[in-house]
TrEMBL record, chain A:
Gene coding for it: ALDH3A2_1
PANTHER family per the UniProt record, alphabetical: ALDEHYDE DEHYDROGENASE (PTHR43570)
Keywords, sorted A to Z: Membrane, Oxidoreductase, Transmembrane, Transmembrane helix
Active site residues per record: 208
Protein's recorded name: Aldehyde dehydrogenase
Annotated family: Belongs to the aldehyde dehydrogenase family.
Aldehyde dehydrogenase domain span: 5-422
InterPro entries named in the record: Ald_DH/histidinol_DH, Ald_DH_C, Ald_DH_CS_CYS, Ald_DH_CS_GLU, Ald_DH_N, Aldehyde_DH_dom, Aldehyde_DH_NAD(P)
Glycosyltransferase keyword on record: no
TrEMBL record, chain B:
Keyword Endoplasmic reticulum carried by entry: yes
Name of the molecule in the record: Aldehyde dehydrogenase family 3 member A2
Domain Aldehyde dehydrogenase: residue ranges: 15-435
Topology with respect to the bilayer: Single-pass membrane protein
Subcellular localization: Endoplasmic reticulum membrane; Microsome membrane
Active site: 219
Enzyme class: oxidoreductase
Subunit structure: Homodimer.
Alphabetical keyword list: Endoplasmic reticulum, Fatty acid metabolism, Lipid metabolism, Membrane, Microsome, Oxidoreductase, Phosphoprotein, Transmembrane, Transmembrane helix
Lineage: Eukaryota, Metazoa, Chordata, Craniata, Vertebrata
Statement: the UniProt record of this protein carries the keyword Oxidoreductase: yes
Length: 507, 494
């Protein structure tokens, strides 16, 4: 079944109909229509899957998708155009450029926490780049997956972008097939399996994985505002966000204040009983509920801690003085539990972060520019947001991705297009000027070698149109200023010029 | 070099990686000055040890001095020069386009070192294809483990002995050895693996990398087709093809593997290639300094075996003792011939006849995507058609091999010919973590209120308005500059 859909997508791709820009734009417009027309259905599906509030769905997923589609439509011609590169003496009279091309059939494996954004954002890039795509949404977000399978063929080309449903075994079946790129969002363990399967076909991969994203609060910053932003980021989607601040690092002296500020903010956001708040989500299923509850074993929360297994509800929970080697600190929490680990100062925090796997995101709350710079310099991560959380995700000009165990490759905006394209180096020469080539042919001698050396070591020159325009403007400006200077000097020298006299200059 | 065994039972490879990682973690590769100093030392290495390098290449591959200079040494020197002059630019934070929300924030992409990079080099260009990635690794601030190919054993030995005398001994280590040593290395955890070699081993490298979620750059190979349009200047085309084919005796990953042309020009092509070879080597390829040798017996036997089933148009002479195979052109070759089943990597040039460019494109598309595709034609439309209807790592029209020499062009494959790209700045980017940074202020909290619960329809409409209004900051900036320019011009005129 999977193989059939894949074959059909491949044949549709080979027919060449996904290549013309008009076709890609038409598909993107259709996708945009789908998002706007079916917003209610999508919200309902998400409410059933994960109890997402009707406002959170557009806020967290749909507006972002719309934004990406708009950007792709606006910029597609620019992205798909040949990109000129710098030339050297060897290639000065040639046409040298990079031509972005479709790869072929892309496999997109989505995740359950943001089933629409994490499946459709890569799809937008795949369509824009001219590929076919097999979309495999997560079986855990069942209603959303069923809805996607029902909707996509109504708006997009049925053969080029099939939706494959299923769980682990269907995914494994898919991974045996030969794709031209695999885009996977999910956990590290399955990420490894995806890459191993891809290796058998030498398929390049983009892996958007996770990890524990640390959040450092400096004692001298505005703790109140910092905690407000952190609380929002941590408890949105009930903590089930790959870039949620996983845990807090701060000095013991402000720990109490942090707890208080978070408690106050939670009251403001969700009221006294978050269970009754329409804006507070639920855990996706029983298994994850049990997993998160067991992480809290043996700790007394200072905020929250209540739960209701029948609803998969866990109250927003904060734990303080968590030991670094506890189970809570060994795996990504992916839930509404916020541990606070105390460190003695910023250096201690930096060491703590560096002892662990490279995170997907790093959050720093600090007012001191120098300290911020130092912390960024001495750590590494996929992305950094300072004085807020998750916002680097929202700017599509920033490449979004992980490093090390948190992933490889990046996307968003133009980066998705680039990731799912092949950048073909093109060098168009002419069959003239053969005399220039003589230096490279045997029989080799000193003179020829010398000429070859000169050509090979020549510097790179930027011959793009933009540089040319600036060069011309600068030259004109320069000449203009030079003329002005000469005129001023001449006048100052008291030159008795009749034309000026005639103009009444010497009145 | 005094390697103290930290724990007994650790293999040589494990120790090497551990030492490299510990040195990397001291942070001494971060300052640009350190990286430039190491790059300059690498420059000295190449300058001072040219004799050793050339001798090793002569023994390994029969490479003449001039060939070694042109294809191994010069290209590394140029890369080093480029990296040293441009490093500050490459390593600087790269600002990105902002939107309305981030107008007052600092937003940029910061290139950072990845950690320890494993570079596995090939035997056909043991110096340039091992050192070029090393230049990028050093420039990007990484530590590196070099594993030169054991098949080019003399070059491998020279690198292992001499490199530590110039570069930091702990950060940049050379591990010599064959398949078992490579397998030991691949068990270790690296932050990036850069492999140049065959497709088959490329798969094994990627599988090993998958276990640690290590990103890879694979520079593999394949059969690079070369289409000659019947209406082009066949003489010049054949000269360029013959030159490119016979560099390093055909043992080049981007050598034109086979020719596609129409039956009407077949004989002319054979004649012109014959003529060019005579021009290059007089009558004695065997005694010419400029003609290389096959690397070893195994490759020799393999290449000789490929000739079966085809007619030799000319050439075919060989001397097993010397590892010499003369330039050979084969005709009556079909897609099923033995010579068309694997990458030749030798001085055999099969010619396959096709009836026009459409059939050529079909032939090419039936096979794996090649590392490079060559087209010889005066007709720009035809060239553009080939570009549009095929795919390959690179495409060069009317010449061969030279795209490798423009370091602004990304060099790499697609599909079975590889993944990732390098050369010049691309190596730097490939071996860096491009980290997205957004520096906000703990102010203007009012702007954030639209995202906080409790949610209302009004808040949502504000959010939608903000996010979907595309402020084209670039265009605004251009307009402001134009206005300034106009007022300056007015002032000057006045």
């Amino acid at each position: 079944m999977e193989r059939q859909l894949f074959q059909r997508a491949k044949e549709a791709f080979l027919s060449g109909r996904a290549r013309p820009l008009e076709f890609r734009l038409q598909q993107l417009h259709a996708l945009q229509r789908m998002i706007t027309e079916k917003e209610t259905e999508i919200s309902t599906a998400l409410k059933q899957d994960i109890n997402r509030s009707q406002y959170d769905t557009p806020l967290l997923e749909l507006i972002g998708i719309e934004n990406e589609i708009k950007l792709a439509i606006e910029k597609l011609a620019q992205w798909a155009a040949p990109r000129p590169v710098e030339k050297n003496l060897l290639t000065i009279s040639d046409e040298v450029y990079i031509q972005p091309e479709p790869l072929g059939v892309v496999l997109i494996i989505g995740a359950w926490n943001y089933p629409w954004a994490l499946t459709l954002l890569p799809l937008v890039g795949a369509i824009a780049a001219g590929n076919a795509a097999v979309v495999k949404p997560s079986e855990l977000s069942e209603c959303s997956s069923l809805l996607l399978r029902a909707l996509l063929p109504c708006y997009l080309d049925k053969d080029l972008y099939p939706v494959v449903m299923g769980g682990v075994s269907e995914t494994q079946q898919l991974l045996r097939l030969r794709f031209d790129h695999i885009f996977y969002t999910g956990g590290s363990t399955v990420g490894k399996q995806v890459m191993e399967a891809a290796a058998r076909h030498l398929t390049p991969v983009t892996l958007e994985l996770g990890g524990k994203s640390p959040c450092y609060i400096d004692k001298n910053c505005d703790v109140r505002m910092a905690c407000r932003r952190i609380t929002w980021g941590k408890f949105v989607n009930c903590g089930q966000t790959c870039i949620a601040p996983d845990y807090i690092l701060c000095e013991p002296c402000i720990q109490g204040r942090v707890v208080e500020c978070i408690r106050q903010t939670l009251l403001e956001f969700y009221g006294a009983d978050p269970k009754c708040s329409p804006d507070y989500g639920r855990i996706i299923n029983q298994r994850h509920f049990n997993r998160i509850m067991s992480l809290m074993d043996g700790y007394t929360p200072v905020v929250g801690g209540q739960s209701d297994s029948s609803q998969c509800y866990i109250a927003p929970t904060v734990l303080k003085d968590v030991p670094p080697h506890s189970r809570l600190m060994q795996e990504e929490i992916f839930g509404p539990v916020l541990p606070i680990v105390t460190v003695s100062d910023m250096d201690d925090a930096i060491n703590f972060i560096n002892e662990r796997e490279k995170p997907l995101a790093l959050y720093i709350f600090c007012s001191d520019k120098k300290a911020i710079k130092r912390m960024i310099e001495e750590t590494t991560s996929g992305g950094v947001t300072v004085n807020d959380v998750m916002m680097h995700y929202t700017l599509s000009s920033l490449p979004f991705g992980g490093v090390g165990q948190s992933g490889m490759g990046c996307y968003h905006g133009k980066h998705t297009f680039d990731q799912l394209s092949h950048h073909r180096a093109c060098l168009i020469r002419s069959l003239n000027m053969e005399s220039v080539n003589r230096a490279r042919y045997p029989p080799q001698d000193r003179r020829r070698a010398k000429r070859a050396r000169v050509a090979l070591k020549s510097p790179l020159i930027d011959t793009s149109k933009r540089t040319l325009v600036w060069a011309v403007i600068a030259t004109i400006l320069g000449i203009g200023l030079f003329i002005t200077l000469m005129v001023i000097l001449l006048i100052a020298a008291g030159l008795n010029c009749t034309c000026w006299y005639w103009r009444g200059f010497y009145n | 070099s005094g390697s103290v065994q930290i724990a007994s039972g650790m293999s040589r490879e494990q120790l090497a990686v551990q030492r490299a990682r510990r040195s990397f973690q001291t942070g001494r590769t971060r300052p640009l000055d350190f990286r430039i100093q190491q790059l300059r030392r690498l420059q000295s290495f190449i300058k001072e040890r040219q004799r050793d390098i050339k001798d090793a290449l002569q023994t390994d591959l029969g490479k003449s001095e001039r060939a070694s200079e042109m294809y191994e040494i010069l290209v590394v020197e140029a890369e080093l020069h480029l990296s040293i002059t441009r490093l500050a630019e490459w390593a600087a934070p790269r600002p990105v386009e902002k939107n309305l929300f981030t107008l007052l924030d600092e937003v940029y992409v910061k290139p950072e070192p990845l950690g320890v990079v494993l570079i596995i080099g090939p035997w056909n260009y043991p110096w340039s294809l091992t050192l070029l990635p090393l230049v990028g690794a050093i420039a990007a601030g990484n530590a590196a483990i070099l594993k030169p190919s054991e098949i080019s054993s003399n070059s491998s030995k020279v690198i292992e002995e001499l490199l530590p005398l110039y570069l930091d001994k702990d950060l940049y280590q050379v591990v010599e050895g064959g398949v078992p040593e490579a397998q030991e290395l691949l068990k270790e955890r690296f932050d990036h693996i850069f492999y140049t070699g065959s497709t088959a081993v490329g798969k094994l490298v990627m599988e090993a990398a998958a276990r640690h979620l290590t990103p890879v750059t694979l520079e593999l190979g394949g059969k690079s087709p070369c289409y000659i349009d019947k209406n082009c200047d066949v003489g010049i085309a054949c000269r360029r093809i013959a030159w490119a084919k016979l560099i390093n005796c055909g043992q080049t990953c981007i050598a034109p593997d086979f020719i596609l042309c129409e039956p009407s020009v077949l004989n002319r092509v054979v004649e012109e290639i014959k003529k060019s070879i005579k021009e290059f080597y007089a009558d004695s390829t065997k005694t010419s300094d400029d003609y290389g040798r096959i690397i070893n017996q195994r490759q020799f036997k393999r290449i000789m075996g490929l000739m079966e089933g085809c007619t030799i148009a000319f050439g075919g002479d060989a001397d097993e003792a010397q590892g010499y195979i003369g330039p050979t052109v084969l005709k009556n070759v079909t897609g099923e011939s033995k010579v068309m089943q694997e990458e030749i990597f030798g001085p055999l040039l099969p010619i396959i006849t096709v009836n026009g460019v459409d059939e050529a494109i079909q032939f090419i598309n039936e096979r794996e995507k090649p590392l490079v595709l060559y087209v010889f034609s005066h007709d720009n439309k035809l060239i553009k058609k080939v570009i549009a209807e095929t795919s390959s790592g690179a495409l060069v029209a009317n010449d061969c091999v030279v795209h490798f020499l423009d370091s602004a062009l990304p060099f790499g494959g697609v599909g079975h010919s590889g993944m990732g790209r390098y050369r010049g700045r691309h190596t730097f980017d490939q071996l860096s973590n491009l980290r997205s940074c957004m520096i906000k202020q703990l102010r203007m909290e009012g702007l954030n209120s639209m995202r906080y619960p409790p949610h209302t329809a009004k808040k949502l409409s504000w959010a939608r308005r903000f996010v979907l209004s595309h402020l084209n900051v670039q265009r605004l900036r251009n307009m402001v500059m134009l206005a300034m320019l106009a007022s300056l011009a007015a002032f000057v005129v006045q």
